[in-house]
Specification:
This protein has 307 residues and is of the alpha/beta class. Helices cover 44% and strands 22% of the residues. The chain has eleven helices and ten strands. Mean pLDDT is 82; it is low at 1-5, 124-130, 197-202 and 272-280.
């Protein structure tokens, strides 16, 4: 079933592809070509130059970036035609400023459905404390982000949906359906749950009581998941569901590894400030640690004032 035939699911029409011409950006470009588009869709390439450079040097950098961007535009267009993708317009633009700010600005100007970004190597601890461009775009922007972690050869074949059993799960499912090709007939879903205050109360709780509580939580989650996957948005896919007890961030990454998933889709609630610095979002952790592409979005927009 193609995205266009799933109730409430629209194919991609406007995709933003930021690039710094690195290997990670190259992987992102190849993945972007493999996404399912509506006829007449647009794929916008954007490169962001630093703003704090002398005027003459900035003009030279802008010309060079424009030439590289035009070369990449032709390559992407050629690759799309080679794969039989027609009716998609590929455009390119150069901006100056802070990368994550200009990416968000461009996504708003273009009314993008999706931002596709490449991951820059593996620096999980640094990324968790400082934040990558991708993580900042996810946290402060409104448009869903696909973070590409490796070479793209085929459309997604082993998608995994992270279920939080809240509004973000509905949004994540619809988002995942938009980026899956029409040949995908099977998908996996995982829900990770914690026994409340398990670490604090374990010494005073009998093993039987703890096991009963975990069993109750598992049964409740299983029933809610079955209702969720019976919705129209989940139609057309055969689902393999897993329930995992434990810390959600670690459980999701382990499930990706266990299934050798090539994509995990999840929602985020965009923590900011001290809560984000001390706790870190599940989405941010998965983006930094998962050995596959990560698709992230939120059901409600946040208000981030661009400088």
């Amino acid at each position: 079933m193609s995205p266009a035939t799933v109730p409430g699911i629209e194919p991609l029409r406007r995709v933003l592809l930021p690039t710094d011409f690195s290997r990670g950006a190259e992987y992102a470009a190849k993945r972007a070509v493999l996404l399912p588009y509506a006829r007449g869709a647009r794929l916008h390439l954007v490169h962001v130059l630093p703003a704090d450079v002398p005027e003459k040097l900035g003009a030279v950098m802008e010309r060079q970036a424009g030439m590289k961007l035009e070369s990449l535009r032709r390559q992407v267009h050629k690759e799309a035609r080679k794969r039989g993708i027609s009716g998609v317009e590929v455009t390119a633009l150069v901006r100056r400023g802070e990368p994550f700010v200009e990416i968000i600005r461009a996504s708003r100007t273009l009314d993008a459905d999706l931002v596709v970004l490449g991951r820059h190597g593996r620096r999980p601890l640094r990324d968790l404390f400082i934040g990558t461009t991708a993580e900042r775009v996810i946290r402060k922007g409104e448009v869903p982000v696909l973070v590409v972690g490796g070479r793209a050869i085929y459309p997604y074949q082993r998608p995994l949906l992270a279920l939080g059993l809240d509004a973000a799960s509905d949004f994540s499912l619809a988002l995942m359906r938009r980026v899956l090709g029409p040949d995908v007939t099977h998908a996996a879903a995982v829900h990770a749950f914690n026994v409340p205050f398990e670490d604090f109360t374990a010494p005073r709780r009998s093993r039987g009581t703890e096991a009963d509580l975990r069993k109750e939580l598992r049964a409740e989650a299983a029933a809610r998941i079955q209702r969720f996957l019976a919705s129209e948005q989940a139609a057309g896919l055969r689902w393999d569901v897993a329930l995992r007890s434990g810390e959600p961030r670690a459980a999701l990454v382990k499930e990706v590894e266990r299934r050798e998933a090539d994509l995990i889709a999840l929602g985020t609630h965009a923590r900011t400030g001290l809560a984000h610095a001390l706790i870190g979002s599940v989405a941010g952790w998965v983006v930094a640690m998962a050995p596959c592409d990560v698709l992230v979005g939120r059901p409600a927009s946040v208000q981030f004032q661009l400088p």
